[in-house]
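Notes to self after the call with IL:
- keep both proteins in one doc
- input above output, always
- annotate only the second one for now

Protein 1:
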Amino acid sequence: MKKISAKKLAVLGVLLAAASIVFLIESLVPPLLPMAPYVKIGLANCFVLLVIIYFGAGEAFVFVLAKNILTAIFAGWYVLPFNLAGSLCAYFAMFGLYAVGFPKISLVSISVAGAICSNIARTSVAVLIMEAPSLYVQLPFVAGISIAAGIIIGILTTISVKHLPERLTNLK
C-alpha cells in the first residue's frame, strides 16, 4: 500500500467530516418524494467528486466507505444498505466518467450521472428489502430529482474547484 502524506490525510479528514456533517443535516430534511423516503439530493457527493478530482480512485473509494460507515454510526445502521449502494454506484459512475472524459464531459454531467446511478441503486435496495418490484414505477420521478440534484452538486463542485485555495489542492 502506498504511503499517504500527513497533509493529504488531514485534508481527507476535513473533507470526510464535512461530507458527514452535510449528510447528517440533509437527513433532517423531509423526504423529497414521500412515497420514496430513500431518495435524497446527496449533497455529500460534492465531496466525493472533489476527492476523485484531487486524490484519485483509490483514496476516493476508501473515502466513500469511510463516509458510509461514519454516517451509519450517527444516523443508524438501517440506512447503511441504501447509502452504501447509492454511494458506491455514484462513485463508480463519477470516477469512470471523470477518468474517461473529463474535461470533455463537464463536472455537472459527471455529477448528474452519479446522482441518477445513486438513486436507481437506492430504489433497487428498497425493492430488495421490501420485496416490492412495483417500486420501480417511481424511477421516472427519481430520475427527475436525480437530474436536478446532479446539476446542483455539479455546480457546487465546479465552484469549489475554481475557488479552493491552492494550499488545499496542491498536495504533491
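Protein 2 (the one to annotate):
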Amino acid sequence: MTMMMATMIAAAGCAHAQQSGTTGADGTSADGSLPKVYFFKEITPQNLVRIYEALGREAHGKIAVKLSTGEPGGHNFLQPALIKDLVQKVGGTIVECNTAYGGGRADTRSHLKAAADHGFTAIAPVEIMDAEGETELPVKGGKHLDHDIVGKGFLKYDFTIILSHFKGHAMGGFGGAIKNMSIGIASSHGKAWIHSAGTTTDPNRVWGALPAQDDFLESMAEAAKAVADHCGDNILYISVANKLSVDCDCDSSPADPRMGDIGILASLDPVALDRACTDLVRSSADPGKVHLIERIDSRHGMHTLDHAEALGMGSQKYELVKLD
C-alpha cells in the first residue's frame, strides 16, 4: 500500500532540499526517509516554477527540457503559455526525438514544423536530438535490453528536466515520467527497440510483431533506467496532470478528457512521481476517473513501476507534500 503523508507547508517555504540516492527494499533512502513528491493543485505557470524550486536541485549548465510537443491534430499537450516561465527561468532547450510510427513527427523537418505550429519554438530553442544520429546508453540489470538507443544530441546536455504531461496511453496504460524519459528520449530506432523488447530497431517491423505486454512495459522501465543512470543527480521530474485523456499526446485524434484536472507534481524520484499521479487519479472523487483507470489497468500499466522499482530506480512509497 502506498504511503501518502499529506504534509502541508507554506508556498513561501518551498525550498526544501530532497535527498536522492538508492532506496531500500521498503522504499526508504539511506537516511530512512521516503522520497518526497511535491503537489500543487492549482495549475499555473507560477506554480510550475515554484514546484521546481521546491525540489531544491538547481538545473545548471546546458539544460534539456524533455516534453512532448504533440502530434499534429492533437490538442492535449502541455501548452507553451503554461511552461514558458519555467523553461525560460532555467534557460532550457526543449528536446524531442523523432517518432517510430509515421505521422507528423517522423522526420526532423516535420517534427520542427509541428513544434513551431504548436507554439514551442516561440518560447525556447527546440532540438530534435536524433537529427544528427543516435548513440547507446548501457542498461544495468535489464531482462530485455542491455542498452538504450537515444538521440545523439542528448549527450551535449549537462542537466535534464523531465517535464511530462501525465495522461493515459494506448499501449502503456499511462504516460508519465518513465514513459517520457524512455520512449521520449529514444531515437526512432530506439523507440522500435523498446516497443519490441529488444528484438528489432526497425520501425517498419516492430508494429507487426509486438512482444508480450509485460515485456514491453519492462523494456520501458529499463530504457528509463539507462537515462537516469546516465544523468545521475543531474535530472529532476515534473508532471502536470491535466487534460486527462485516456490517449497520449502522440495520438493525432485523442479522446476528450473525461475527468477534471488534478494538479502539478514533482519529485527527484520518477517511480514515486508516477505512482503519486496514479494514486491521485484513483483517489479522486471525479466519477470520470473510471475511464482512465480502465485504460491503466487494462494495459497492466502499473507493472512498469513494479519493474522500475525492482531495478532500483526509485520507490512506490513516498511522502506527498502539499504546497497549496
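Annotation: The first strand starts at residue 7 and ends at 8. Residues 1-26 have pLDDT under 50 and may be disordered.
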